[in-house]
Write the structure tokens for this entry.
Amino acid sequence: MSLPSHVRLVEVGPRDGLQNEALPIAVADKVRLVDALSDAGLGYIEVGSFVSPKWVPQMAGSAEVFAQIRRKPGVTYGALAPNLRGFEDALAAGVKEVAVFAAASEAFSQRNINCSISESLERFAPIMSAARQHGISVRGYVSCVLGCPYEGNVAPEQVAAVARELYAMGCHEVSLGDTIGTGTAGDTRRLFEVVGAQVPREKLAGHFHDTYGQAIANIYASLLEGIQVFDSSIAGLGGCPYAKGASGNVASEDVVYLLEGLGIHTGIDLSRLIDAGRQISQVLGRASGSRVAKVRDAS
Ligand code: HMG
Ligand code: MG
């Protein structure tokens, strides 16, 4: 299969990247990050989560972040909503696209959202109908698509079953998450072959954490499978609070560098993206997780 000419990036740094940070990050710093990301040309930014603050304290200020960002026309500012309560809070904050999140492994579903996979899908049904009523689009996530921190191997057929349910209930796109970053390029190709038989490939996205350093290879493998949407995180920030040892998502800067090298258009300005990553790395007081940013900053 030939490579796509355009790829869309979903920037998840302000949500997936920051949700795992132990120390509180000021709303102003989160707002500055989101605005810097839209200035760099990102068309989709996942800004926060409307989840229980007891479960993920760092996301508690998401409504304030939404109130203060400079919304650029044409940019989608998304947020996670695990239940109707989260959806209503998101709606009140002016969110136009929410994401529901399920897992392909029962144990992870219990640890992450305190219910079984089928209960989670039932919980999403009222979100889908409320979203339709209010003209809100819904994205779906499936976690643990290439392995689970509690159960180990996860069959692609199990991922396909959950992805198909999310698509059938009205998610316009389903993002497949390698939550613990153990997957290889071979696993990734097989995953999209199996899931792609149940959900159209143009409705699927790849979400790769880089724990084992395989994320860039997995994105390339996904491109070969016709996938054109990838989630990535500025400066490689992140991890999941319910997946111990999970490192950040693949760094947005590194993905843009890969895609530019392949002649694939993203509409993103790499230097401005690196600036955005430098800024948030300074706030967090640590070096960027992006290989490209590290080299550019050193030269
Ligand atoms: P629960 O305890 O089963 O829910 O949690 P509950 O309905 O019994 O409510 C318990 C308390 O939470 C109550 O408060 C509710 O009001 C409150 P209390 O009476 O104890 O004071 N509550 C809420 N508060 C704010 N917003 C809400 C909300 N809902 C209930 N929406 C629940 C169930 C789903 C709420 C909880 O498990 C939760 O919030 N989990 C969030 C987990 C999370 O955010 N994980 C990280 C994101 S997923 C991820 O990172 C993976 C991804 O990146 C893809 C990948 O990498 O694989 C997407
Ligand atoms: Mg994630």
